[in-house]
Amino acid sequence: MDTTGLRERAEAWRKADPDPETQAELANVLAKSDWADLADRFAQDLEFGTAGLRGVLGAGPNRMNRAVVRRTTAGLARYLKATVPDVTTRGVVVGRDARRLSKELSEDTAAVFAAEGIPAHVFPEPVPTPVTAFAVLHLNAAAAVMVTASHNPPEYNGYKVYWGNGAQIVPPQDVGIADAIAKVEAANAVPLLTPAEGRAKGLWRDLPEDVGNAYLRAILDLRLYRKGSDTLSIVYTAMHGVGGAWAALALKEAGFPRVTPVAEQQQPDGRFPTVRFPNPEEPGAMDLSVATAERVKADLVLANDPDADRLAVMARDASGKLRLLTGNEVGVLLGHYVLTQGTKRARPHVVTTIVSSTQLGEIARGLDAAYDEVLTGFKWIANRALERTAKDGTQFVFGYEEALGYTVGTATRDKDGVGAALVMADLAAWCEARGVTVLGYLEEIQRRFGLHVGAQRNVTLPGAAGAQTIRAIMQAFRASPPQDIGGTRVSAVRDYQQGEGGLPPSNVVAFALEGGGRVTLRPSGTEPKIKYYFEHKETPAPGEPLPQARQRAEAKLGALIDAFLALARDRGQPA
């Protein structure tokens, strides 16, 4: 698009923008004739997919703003009316986190639904994402919108959509909604009802505390040991998000009086002043938690991300040092705990993803439980659980993905960082009663089912040239898969682009290795990166100290990573 066309499009967008702040922002960019900035803002419409919307806040169609959200909501509302006959009776839940502009975006969302004749069940205060997911089922709503950017930096916000089954949307719903959005009028022409008008017509319904209380009762019921502990010391951080009050109340009700919050991060603050990237996995994000834990000599650290759908865990090793568990280790602990200590079910079912550890599958087979691997994203876990229950009569008990997402049972059909934190505390109390630590319990599992170690490497390749390089790397590995990696034979090649294992096609290639390891490649869906996931399985010798076996496993994993990255460089990845 030439500069004249770009200016005309930007002026038209500015005039239709209902938000004075982004109107002024765009006017300033136009006044400076900043063509590079304008080109980026108008390069495309912010893409609506199975994760809804997520992007940097700002003016223009390629940003998160009130104009984009009003048009998106109108499209979603019209799609719902075309596909869900009773949507005007059941309504839609609207929740939000505490990020910048979340309040305004959620109010716009509710105002558009109300104008479309769809009752909006609105949380008047910020809530964790899993509370919104829970409310869909609790209220029998037709759908839900959660305004959140999860663990992204402070300049981001997002718009997450749930279907009436309580799970995030999957194809073809995302395509249908995107098509409906494309037909929506300019943002300033989208009909709205003010909160007062909506309430007067019964189309804006402020949700009472009863809904949140029902959620807390539901997650308290997930506990297996159920005795709490007067002696277990826990440090908890909300990472400047909305989970603080919820986790504190849940842990108190569960019988854990020795919970110390990380004071600097306990209250919601969309600026995230103590962390640049409010993700517990990021370097430095847990520093304040560690400092607090050392001060109070805590046994366990629990950390939620800002919308409280993820959980990170730290526990003390045999030497007394705090260690951050990987997402896979937490998943293995919770999965084994639920399968062995939970209510005995005829056909328990556990689910993980194709980039998570294979160890949950080994545990499931050893304990005669149903098991599935699905594509990356919790939407696939929840929907597979529903499919298997309907088709095979299985009972879903646990699902996880390695990126710190877990859910126990069916209280929510999405990852739930508050519920998972509660069950992890319950697990730790059970371990304490048995005279073992959390990491001691993990060792018990690893001695029976093998010591699995894993790592992830991301290579950032920005721009059109980077995207072309990523395509070339994926194509090279598809066209000529390696017969071995670092001397370990490749026992199977799985190309998920071909619908491997009955899954929807996805741009992922995995190499299963002799001995139980795996290397998986996938381009990121949201960033200019190619991601490599590595796993190695080691069998500890009888009586061998586990740290010794772990050291050996980590060395072999490092050699595997080096060997594969050398292959990737040979196939087009920059050195």
From TrEMBL:
Residues 1-18 have a biased composition (Basic and acidic residues). GO terms for biological process: carbohydrate metabolic process; purine ribonucleoside salvage. It comes from the Bacteria. Signal peptide: none annotated. Residues 1-20 are annotated as: Disordered. Its cofactor is Mg(2+). PROSITE patterns: PGM_PMM. One of its GO terms (molecular function) is phosphopentomutase activity. Keywords: Isomerase, Magnesium, Metal-binding, Phosphoprotein. The keyword Aminoacyl-tRNA synthetase does not apply. Residues 47-185, 224-317, 327-429 form the Alpha-D-phosphohexomutase alpha/beta/alpha domain. Residues 499-538 form the Alpha-D-phosphohexomutase C-terminal domain. Belongs to the phosphohexose mutase family. PANTHER family: PHOSPHOGLUCOMUTASE 2B-RELATED, PHOSPHOMANNOMUTASE 45A. This is Phospho-sugar mutase. It comes from Corallococcus carmarthensis.
